[in-house]
Amino acid sequence: MNNKLKKIALIGQPNVGKSSLFNRIAKKRIAIVSDLAGTTRDIRKHEVEILDKDAIMLDTGGIDETNDEIFSNVKRKAVECAKEADIILFMVDGKKIPDDKDKELFYELQTLNKKLALVVNKIDNDKELERLWSFYEFGIDEENLFGISVSHNRGTKRLFEWIADQLPPREEENQLLLEEDEDDFLEEFLNPTEDINKQIDYEDNNEVRVAIIGRVNVGKSSILNALVGEERSVVSSVAGTTIDPVDESFEYKDKKITFVDTAGLRRRGRIEGIERFALMRTEEMLEKANLALVVLDASKELVDLDEKIAGLVDKYGLGTIIVLNKWDENADTFQKLEEKVRSKFKFLYYAPIIAVSAKTGRSIDRLKDKIVEIYDNYSQRIPTSVLNKVIETATIRHALPSPAGNYLRIYYTTQFETKPPRIALIMNKPKFLHFSYKRYLINFLRENINFEGTPIHLVARKKGERDIDEEDIEEF
């Protein structure tokens, strides 16, 4: 991490949306996003790019006036963080009226003589902009007051422009892309060079980070031991034996496979003490993983909690394998069970289902092979020429719609990101492309290219648009 970059501190009370804003700026799911107040405890740092300028983003724990030892420590760290930062974003909840606690802390931050912005989150529509008037009592100038909605991506452009104005320009060697004209950029986008492809795919190209998740006592630790081949994780018949995630790595087919055996997930109402933190650690682990094994107990009925846990994988966009553990019956019973699983987990329709027995070792080698295969699908970069051919064939078989007489045309298709695959449709009127037609294109891509086990993110945009609006992305 470049310590010469300017630092941006993100400060505010719990549950005002700091982690969501942090994630939008970082363009990755790095901070834990949760409805539970006080999720973020420590100061997180991440190097970010804001409108072609670089900075270090600091995300602090929520500041809450309470006698709780944890939060008093969090407040101290947050203020220390603000003193070290060059730019301070003080975030408040626009759904609530300004409170004295916020104003007192804001006045304290003003005395630091730093670049300071008041960010009022949860301003979800134009009518709610009227709420901004009550925040002028903070003594803030209009140009430093921002009404935004992170969840709806409203008002963030002006905030990002303000932040970028406070940052120095990049050094000359980092401005090559900025110096290209638009035609050169589009040409490179259509025909990326081998060196650029290598640069994009280089990080962790041969390391598979596998999250093992499932509810309590489905056999996650036993599966880990069967895959690794050693008794490395504590295995017990007592539910919830594993508390801390345990990283285990081994080499397989030129890949370094790292497993994290997570804490058993309990129902929210039963999580107490250290297990509450174990659940938070599980979500942190999912943020770092690129593949997930959703472990189900084939000897018991599926329950709603299985679906909720599997939803975490869908939330983080991971490559996925559904593992039915403790299955020792015949093919007929497997087919019936597979139908139940498909019905329960419709959102993971792309995930293969493998029945194993950690106890006997049945199909464990097949599971290893499938992990490597799904990771390759998850991290692959499809040549632009191949994507264009597939999409062209799809539009011939099922013509693009013409909503309200608007003629739609796809100029070309290109993949702009991996892990998971993100594909852009460059077209004339992207806003008129219905999600049902996007779903058709995704299904057609899956029929012609091996995307088994991985979600595909599809976005439609106009020529020359470099920024991706997260709200325009369809996930299938």
In short:
Helix content is about 35%, strand content about 20%. With about 475 residues, it is of the alpha/beta class.
Topology:
Blueprint (H helix, E strand, L loop, with lengths): L6 E6 L5 H9 L17 E7 L2 E7 L9 H16 L2 E7 L6 H11 L4 E7 L23 E3 L8 H10 L10 H4 L2 H9 L3 H8 L5 E7 L6 H9 L17 E7 L2 E7 L12 H15 L2 E7 L6 H13 L2 E7 L5 H14 L8 E3 L8 H16 L4 H14 L12 E8 L4 E6 L7 H14 L8 E5 L11 E3 L1
Parallel strand pairs: 1-3, 1-4, 4-5, 5-6, 7-9, 7-10, 10-11, 11-12, 14-15
Antiparallel strand pairs: 2-3, 8-9, 13-14, 15-16
Query: In DSSP terms, counting alpha (H) and pi (I) runs of 4 or more, how many helices?
Result: 14
* Spatial order of the strands forming the largest sheet: 2-3-1-4-5-6
Broad structural category: alpha/beta
Global mean pLDDT: 76
Can you summarize the main beta sheet? 6 strands, mixed
Structure, explained:
The longest helix has 16 residues, at 69-84. The relative contact order is 0.08. It contains 14 helices and 16 strands. The strands form 3 sheets. Strands 2-3-1-4-5-6 form a 6-stranded mixed beta sheet, with helices on both faces. Strands 8-9-7-10-11-12 form a 6-stranded mixed beta sheet, sandwiched between helices. The protein is α/β, with parallel strands linked by helices and 476 residues long. Helix 13 packs across helix 14.
List keywords for this structure.
476 residues; six-stranded mixed β-sheet; globular
